[in-house]
């Protein structure tokens, strides 16, 4: 019986080995006959919608065996019967630039076009490797008769956008309802695409914008002029690689910049701000502490003093009062001590405007130049006084303990 079982097992093992050999031979034959072709070296960039949100796609650069570059445009959402001219331009899409290479028009029925070349339109030789470092972008137009209307667009080469970005809030200022955000996106070459996106802008408006030095509470000179925001779309795009004074600035440097953004009502009314926001090291962290400011001597003025933490450790102090009168200006200070044991002025604050009941002050040091930031304010032995006017500092209209003296 044991020998019979042994023979049966031997037969099964031999059968398994034969089947395995046949399988390996068959699989090897299949692999040889169905071997995948070697794919050419290539790089693909997105082409985003512009005038028609349904049209978008990609542009792919392929290196050919004869040292040419094959450019394939593939769009979705195009219509049969349409032909869309396309070009590689110099500079970034945000800047605009001359045509460097004319591409074959995209056939609307397939959404495709293929162009092979090894030189620019001006005859200058350009390799596949050169194109991967090219300072350029691709435009796809609506038609040969309507080149002004773009259906798709995308940066290429060194201008390619990375996945690294930072968004800052832009709040309403003088025109209620207009607000939005500014997004900084890092390019492969280390420069920045700045996109401002606002809501509720008037369709016929053009809103100049700038990055300024210092915080919005302090104010400062223009550091970088932005492309005006188009009121019809609420958008603007700016290529940022250099400040207005000619100094180079990278994406990483902008994220640590001591600045803020102003968006103005118009070129003729720069004094009216429609949106504003701190950027870089001045960005608010989201941490805050609020203290009550109580009415004094029946003034009817009361409100809050709110400290906001900045990324650099400094503080934005916002005073919000009710009961102030239009036209009045109320001096304000942080004092040492408490309301029952008054002391000397430690920090002078921006005056509260009676029209709005608001003042904003950036706090980085005390009046004696000693460092004084957000954390210091929350533990400070002090209080805040709001005075009636510069001519009547003796009259206090609102007052409240802060820091270690708060209840």
Output the keywords:
mainly beta; eight-stranded antiparallel β-sheet; elongated; disordered N terminus
Within the largest sheet, what's the order of strands? Answer: 5-4-7-8-1-2-3-6
Please tell me how large the radius of gyration is: 33 Å
E-strand count: 24
The poorly predicted ranges are 1-33
* Shape category: elongated
Largest sheet: 8 strands, antiparallel
SS class: mainly beta
Element-level helix/strand string: HEEEEEEHEEEEEEEEHEEEEEEEEHEE
Q: What is the CA–CA distance across the termini? A: 95 Å
Give the DSSP E fraction (strand runs of 2 or more residues). Answer: over 45%
- Provide the residue-averaged pLDDT: 92
Alpha plus pi helix count: 4
Estimate percent helicity. 10-25%
Explain this structure.
The protein is mainly beta. The protein is 12% helix and 54% strand. The chain has four helices and 24 strands. The protein has helices at 2-33, 128-132, 251-254, 374-379, and strands at residues 42-49, 56-63, 69-76, 83-90, 99-107, 112-117, 135-143, 146-157, 161-172, 179-187, 192-199, 206-213, 222-230, 235-240, 258-266, 269-280, 284-295, 302-310, 315-322, 329-338, 341-353, 358-363, 381-389, 392-403. An eight-stranded antiparallel sheet has the order 5-4-7-8-1-2-3-6. It has an eight-stranded antiparallel sheet with strand order 13-12-15-16-9-10-11-14. An eight-stranded antiparallel sheet has the order 21-20-23-24-17-18-19-22. β15 and β16 (269-280) form a beta hairpin. The chain is elongated and about 85 Å long. The termini are far apart. 30% of the residues are buried. Residues 1-33 have low confidence and may be disordered.
């Amino acid at each position: 019986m044991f020998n019979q079982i042994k023979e049966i097992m031997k037969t099964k093992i031999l059968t398994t080995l034969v089947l395995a050999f046949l399988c390996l031979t068959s699989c090897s034959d299949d692999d040889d006959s169905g071997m995948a072709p070697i794919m050419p070296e290539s790089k693909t960039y997105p082409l985003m919608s512009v005038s028609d949100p349904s049209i978008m796609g990609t542009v792919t650069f392929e290196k050919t065996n004869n040292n040419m570059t094959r450019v394939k445009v593939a769009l979705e959402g195009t219509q049969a019967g349409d032909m869309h001219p396309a070009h590689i331009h110099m500079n970034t899409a945000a800047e605009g630039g001359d045509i460097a290479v004319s591409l074959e028009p995209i056939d609307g029925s397939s959404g495709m076009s293929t162009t092979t070349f090894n030189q620019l339109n001006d005859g200058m030789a350009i390799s596949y490797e050169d194109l991967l470092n090219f300072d350029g972008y691709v435009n796809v137009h609506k038609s040969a008769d309507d080149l002004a209307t773009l259906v798709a667009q995308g940066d290429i080469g060194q201008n390619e956008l990375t996945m690294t970005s930072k968004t800052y809030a832009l709040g309403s200022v003088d025109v209620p309802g207009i607000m939005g955000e500014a997004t900084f996106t890092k390019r492969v070459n280390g420069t920045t695409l700045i996109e401002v996106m606002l809501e509720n802008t008037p369709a016929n408006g053009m809103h100049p914008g700038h990055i300024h030095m210092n915080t919005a509470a302090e104010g400062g000179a223009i550091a970088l002029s932005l492309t005006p925001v188009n009121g019809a779309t609420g958008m603007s795009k700016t290529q940022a690689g250099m400040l207005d004074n000619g100094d180079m600035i990278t994406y990483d440097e902008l994220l640590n910049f001591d600045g803020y953004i102003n968006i103005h009502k118009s070129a003729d009314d720069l004094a009216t701000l429609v949106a504003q926001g701190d950027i870089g090291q001045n960005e608010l962290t989201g941490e805050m502490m609020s203290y009550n400011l109580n009415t004094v001597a029946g003034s009817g003025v009361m409100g809050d003093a709110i400290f906001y933490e900045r990324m650099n450790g400094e503080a934005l102090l916002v005073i919000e009062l009710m009961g102030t009168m239009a036209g009045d200006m109320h001096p304000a200070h942080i004092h040492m001590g408490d309301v029952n044991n008054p002391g000397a002025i430690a920090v002078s604050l921006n005056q509260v405007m009676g029209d709005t009941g608001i003042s904003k002050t950036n706090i980085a040091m005390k009046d004696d130049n000693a460092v004084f930031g957000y954390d210091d304010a929350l533990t400070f032995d002090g209080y805040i006084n709001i005075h009636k006017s510069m001519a009547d500092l003796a009259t206090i209209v609102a007052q409240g303990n802060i820091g270690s003296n708060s209840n």
